UniProtKB/TrEMBL annotation:
InterPro entries in the cross-refs: DUF6504 (IPR045443)
Lineage: Bacteria, Bacillati, Actinomycetota, Actinomycetes, Propionibacteriales
Every DUF6504 domain range: 4-122
Organism per entry: Kribbella orskensis
Pfam families, alphabetized: DUF6504 (PF20114)
Name of this chain's protein: DUF6504 domain-containing protein
């Protein structure tokens, strides 16, 4: 399995009332989705994004944070690129007429419309 963090262009369609990826363009190649193996929703990790809290009565909880105990400064960093939730689709896709099929995890942020390739698994 390979981990990625790359933006991809995705064409989606509605299957059984659910919008799912149909095709995506990655590194100059068009991949056609043959099957959606799984779909789930991930919420933002409190330790990676968003305002964690006021920091009042709390020792510095975030590495590199200047929030000191008793301070009213916000703790944490807001990641403006992603909304509070994203949908992840594990899809089987093939490239080319007789291309080998692989498994991909594609993440979609409904707030921004952004798509990202997260993982590729050889079959």
């Amino acid at each position: 399995m390979w981990e990625f963090d790359e933006a991809v262009e995705v064409r989606s369609g509605v299957v059984d009332g659910i919008e799912t990826p149909e095709q995506f363009l990655w590194r100059g190649r068009l991949w056609r989705v043959c099957a959606v193996e799984a779909q789930w929703v991930e919420t933002a990790a409190w330790w990676e994004r968003g305002v964690i809290g006021s920091g009042v009565g709390v020792a510095p909880a975030v590495a590199g944070s200047s929030a000191a105990a008793g301070s009213s400064a916000a703790v944490g960093v807001l990641d403006a690129d992603w909304g509070p939730q994203r949908a992840v689709y594990r899809v089987e896709a093939g490239c080319g007429r007789h291309g080998r099929r692989e498994m991909f995890d594609l993440a979609h942020d409904p707030d921004s419309g952004r798509w990202q390739l997260e993982r590729v698994t050889d079959r």
